[in-house]
Each structure stands twice: as structure tokens, then as C-alpha cells.
């Protein structure tokens, strides 16, 4: 595989982040499907986040490829979410009558993570990881109710 | 058809032999758009149309070319995709939207017709010529036709 067609798959907890950039060639698109499906099996991923914010053009072939990827991923138990589609690309697809059926599409990568149940928890400046975990699981709250740690 | 013999002085011709030529065609389209300050949605429509038409040439014809020309008087970018393939036997069905393709030919042509301000297609056993035009500035649109 040459550098141009290299598929980036970033493991993100139990999901795969797949950012696409520039002109996605047909060869690259086909390799994308193979690579992502293999990674779903290898990493036991349950979600695929495809970020399109760096994509220059999305035509009918790339849409069909993404739909094929989402369908195959679903058969393997993984959900696919597309994020970051530029307004002009969305308008072009709408004008062409292309629908991305069966694929969830969200505005930002943060929304895509949220769709997978991954949300942000902001840690305070005085909280270390143990205290944060205790907060998350309600341990500290129960200790306060009971009058302090035992 | 010989590229050099048919080439006009005021046009740029990108040969399409296989799918690896699509990126070059899209790049030339972007540069053409920049030349006349076409950006955003309008530029995206033009690049996507070229991508669809060039892919049809690469997949279904033995070879062909995409011609780019800017008509500064009429304020149009004119793009002609022509091939030496066997022609499209079910063109009417495709343009009527009745053809459900598993390979993408129908969707690409239909989509290109929706995106272009002018769309004309001629097909025969000697090949297919798709002429599209996209206006920039404030001129009125052309019509769509089929032969």
C-alpha cells in the first residue's frame, strides 16, 4: 500500500476513529472498507467514527462505499457514524438526490463520540484520578452523607 | 479520436484512461474554479460533476477525455466529457430515474444533470459526449437536452 492510499484507523477506547482527508481515490475507498472491517474484528470494536471534515469532495461512489462499509460493519456488530461533513458537500449530495441511508450522520466529532456513549467529564484542578472515580461512582457522595470516610 | 487534433486553443484537455486519472481531473477542475473565483457550493458542484463523468469514462469506456473551457463573455465554465466507448443503450431509462444501478453509472449521470446549469448528452455506438456548463457571476442559466 502506498502512502497516498494509507488508511488511518485510530483506536479510541472500543471504537475506531477513521479520519478521511483530501481527495479520496477509488482505490483508497476500497482499501478503507477492507482495513476498517479487519480492524473491527481484530480490535473487537463496537463503533466506527468516520470523520469527513478533511474531505474535499464526496461523490456518488464514495457515498456508496461508505454505505457499504456501514452495512458490513453493522453485520459485524459495529455502528458507523459519519461526522464533519462540510455544508457545500451536504448541499451537493442533496442536489444530486443521494441519501446516506442507514448511516447516522452528525455535525461534529464530539457529537459522534456522544452517539457512541462517550462523553466528556471535566476534572477539577484539585481532583486526582482516584477522587474523580469516587465521584463518578458516587462513593464520595455516600461518604459525605455518612459523615466522612470510614 | 485524437486529442491534439480536436483540441481548441482556449481549452485544457485531461485524458482519462483509468480511475487513477480522476484525481488529476478533479485537481484541474479546482484550479479552473479558482481562476474565475468560483468557490464553496458552486465549486463543489463542478468538481463533483467532473468526478462522476470522469469515473463513467474510466469504468465503462475504453478511454476518453475531459475538456475544460472558460467562456468569460457568457460567464460559464464549460466541461465536456467524451469517450470512445460503446455508447449508453439505456440512456432514457437512466435519465428518467428508473434505472437502479449497482455500479453507479445511472446515479452519476443523473446527479451530474441535477448539478449542472446546462446538460446535454449525445450517445451512439461511436461514443458518448456529455456537455455541461456552470455559470458564474449573474448570467441566466441554459437549458438541459438529450440526443
Summarize the structure.
The complex is a heterodimer of chains A (150) and B (147). With 150 residues, chain A is an alpha/beta fold.
Written overview of the protein:
Chain A: InterPro entries: Bact_StressResp_Reg, STAS_dom, STAS_dom_sf. Chain A: Keywords: Phosphoprotein. Chain A: Residues 16-116 form the STAS domain. The complex is a heterodimer of chains A (150) and B (147). Chain A is an alpha/beta fold and 150 residues long. Chain A has a single domain (10-123), classed as Transcription Regulator spoIIAA (2-Layer Sandwich). Helix content of chain A is 44%, strand content 19%. Chain A contains 6 helices and 5 strands. In chain A, strands 1-2-3-4-5 form a 5-stranded mixed beta sheet. In chain A, α1 (26-43) runs parallel beside α2 (60-75). The longest helix of chain A is centred in the first third of the chain and has 18 residues, at 26-43. Chain A is elongated and about 65 Å long. Chain B has 147 residues and is of the alpha+beta class. Chain B has one domain: Heat Shock Protein 90. Chain B is built from 5 helices and 6 strands; from the N terminus they run αβααββααβββ. Chain B has helices spanning 3-6, 22-35, 40-60, 91-95, 105-115, and strands at 11-16, 64-71, 76-83, 118-124, 127-135, 144-146. In chain B, α3 (40-60) packs antiparallel against α5. Classes of the chains: A alpha/beta (150), B alpha+beta (147).
Descriptors for this entry?
heterodimer, A: alpha/beta, Transcription Regulator spoIIAA, B: alpha+beta, Heat Shock Protein 90, six-stranded mixed sheet, 5 helices, 6 strands
